[in-house]
Specification:
There is one protein chain. The chain is of the alpha/beta class. It has two domains: about 280 residues, HUPs (Rossmann fold); about 150 residues, Isoleucyl-tRNA Synthetase, Domain 1. The chain is built from 17 helices and 18 strands. Strands 1, 2, 3, 4, 8, 13 and 14 form a seven-stranded parallel beta sheet that branches. It has a four-stranded antiparallel beta sheet with strand order 6-5-7-9, with helices on one face.
Amino acid sequence: MARFYGTTPIFYVNDAPHVGHAYTALNVDAVTRWHRLLGDDVFFLTGTDEHGLKIQRSAEEAGRTPIEQADENSARFQEAFRQLNLANDDFIRTTEPRHHHAVQTLLQRAYDNGFIYESTYEGLYCVGCEAYYSEDELVNDNECPIHHRPVEHLSEDNYFFKLSAFQEPLEKWFADVPDNITPSQYRSEAQGLLKLGLDDVSMTRTSIDWGIPVPWDDKHVFYVWYDALINYATAMGYGTDPERFEKWWPATRHFMAKDILRFHTIYWPAMLMAAGIEPMPKYHIHGYLLLGGEKMSKSGNLTKVSPSEMIADFGVDGFRHALLRDHPFGPDSEFSYEAMLSRYNTDLANNYGNLVSRVATVVGKKCGGVGPAPKADSSLAPIVAEAYADTAAAWERVAPSVALEATWRIVRDTNEYLQEHEPWKMEPGDEVDAVMGDALEALRIATILAWPSIPDSAELAWKRLGLPGTVAEQRLPEAASWGGYPGGLTVETGDPLFPRLKLT
């Protein structure tokens, strides 16, 4: 049994949950659901990042304590992820005692190993990024390249991390693990950062107190980025449960947007090396969602588009599927309401939902409501086998949109098969039984493969087909083998799984 430990980045609690957060989280959810179908030992982690100057300042402005603000906003993310039907195994908060312990343990080891030292730092700081920038990196003379807000000049005594000591070890890691970062363009970008040379970096603060105290000097707290990165180790029992940590750490896969590439693919591996932790995680990086479409333009900003708004319009599975299907993992892509609507109606209402309805209706009218068994030599069998192979290959290379396109070939071709044979025009008997048995089997397999994107709807369709157990209990590749529908099962009709929608 393989292990798969998938993580989102932890989301900063000064933000409200928006479609960009949902995109990252849903990709991890879908990929980990696929690995659950394979029978792998899976762990899915997400959570919230709750320390730093930005939190402290915004809390002060609101007349509350930082922890009050963190509690409120972390709860918003937990509720958003519940609405999205994420199957995460843990939701970590960086204000938890377990995380404080892990941070202090890991960085104490790096300090003891000689990779942390004290000095004075002076630089240009973006509160929004919680990061320092050089003058060459600024835009419009004095603005952060990410937030386009003026940076601040800060000077204080800090402890520094000897990032420069890991130039060669990181170069060796890139050379030894050619698939450490995917897609390849982001691996090239990380290598480009590495080729520029690594300077030592400030990793503590004395100007704020909203952070995790440095164990060897309580006048300092750890800079939020170094605290946040360690959450991935915290959740696996680092510093408290060596057996659990050893079990899961080699299986680590970090999913994230490209804007946090530097910290995750350069700083984080170096921190792990400094603490004596091997092997390094692997990374799956995606681009930005760009706001487009008439309805979306009213908000003016993707961060104003909440997952709950989209779920209200499309349902949770409709939103999940459209977001995963229309936005390939890797490049930037445009998010629009009109495209969401089109994908929902095309894939879900007109194809999958229609297939479930017409199969159940014909079986009810022509087969007495009892599903026939498929033919072993059905013309659909090789079509399904090829689509399964393509689906599995795409999930393996973390390409959910491609995987779903392959799965929906089964749905499309089964609808065409029914259209060609027109079983609704046949008299009850062997001929109609043969056609409907094949359609039921293809639909059974398509439903399993669709489960990562539409889990609730897939389970409902499974029940309507009279199949025992749940989709979640199926195990691939055996469950995708032709001939799994036994026949003799009661097939139920019901309301449309995905009613057609119109632009409002």
